[in-house]
Amino acid sequence: MSRASSPWRFLAQEPGFRRLWIATALSELGSVVARVTLILLVNARAVTTGGAPESASALMLIAEMVPMILFGPIAGALVDRCDRRVLLVVANLLQMTLLASVPFAARLDVVWPVYALAMAISAISTVFPPARQSAIPDLVGVERAPTANAISSSTTSFVIVLGAGVAALVLGRFNKDTCFWLAAAGFLAAAIAVARVSLPRWTSERHGVLQLLGEVAAGLRYVRSNSTIAYVVACYFVSFVFIGLWFPIVPEYLRREIGVDPEIWMPRSWLAFGLGGIVGGAVGAWIGRRVRFGRALVLTFFVEPFVISAFWLASSPWPMLALSFLWGALAFAYFVQEHTVLQQDVPPELRGRVFGMLPPLQALGSLVASAAVYLEAGRIAPRNVMLLGGAGYLLASIAFLVAFVGGRSLWWRPNRAGADESSLA
Fold this sequence. Notes:
Blueprint: H1 7-13, H2 15-49, H3 53-81, H4 84-106, H5 112-125, H6 128-140, H7 145-173, H8 176-194, H9 209-225, H10 227-258, H11 262-291, H12 293-313, H13 317-345, H14 351-356, H15 358-376, H16 382-403, H17 405-412
């Protein structure tokens, strides 16, 4: 593919990836709309019943994160042993059914069925990331995977922005039930799109819970034995610990440190982060080809703590928005490098299990951050919490580079011969 090729030409040349890309965008859009609406639903329910809205939101976060931690590795093993096309179709249809059930559960006198549905939705969602990321090299080849990763990353950022806007528009004109129907329709359309994707299977037929757990253990042993993969996975976890601090602290930071209304400026900060993610995802492959994917990954992991610290030193909202944009660009550029390194290094038969570890690590990092905020609430000013977090992030970056020889080798190794030379310009 020539340097002048656009992402649209890439999609036209890769019909299998194009179908997966459409299915991913539709299901991610449904997920964003559903997640926003679920949080608003439990908040409104708590206000109506005289409960604490903050506690309801925290409980919803737990309901979403715990299944990701528990089922993520198992989902990765399922991806490696099952027909991934069938698995994605079934998962999309199950998500559609569960989301269509939420309006009925919300009409009951008790709220626990809504939380139960949220847990089931989260558990099933763990299938999607490993299935998609492990499928990309099979659909476009390892050499062309960087451009596919860049397109996927930018699309995810765009869908976050679009989903929040769609949810706001539908809630303003209709109601929460309509949001859930719309999200369910997105998953139905995703199931139809992914049904036309043909993907190979990498393992022989094996059945039984013990065999499945054995495959999960084999994936963990592989990560532990491979210093490069262990470094990448550890970096991923730490990045979400410090990104996770952002969500619970930023409202009080905006109110107390900058003196603005968080209900106005927090959505704007999210929007800036998402727009930065679109740019970072688009240029991520270009950066990786210019400075090497491994080196770009290490550099991003070192630069991000300084951007985080600068974000929390901002004394007015507009510089804060600019830094939100830069933070989003760095984060999603990092994801392009990370996915590319994993796709290049992990054997095809193990990709599902390795990528399956990422969602639970993301969830665990968010829970660690939430616990830290809960324990320090009211004791340390929001700005100081995040400045300490930025310092901790930088120390972790240094410690990981010292501890993992694979991290140091990433800095020096060249890109794979024949790597995709396309540009997203």
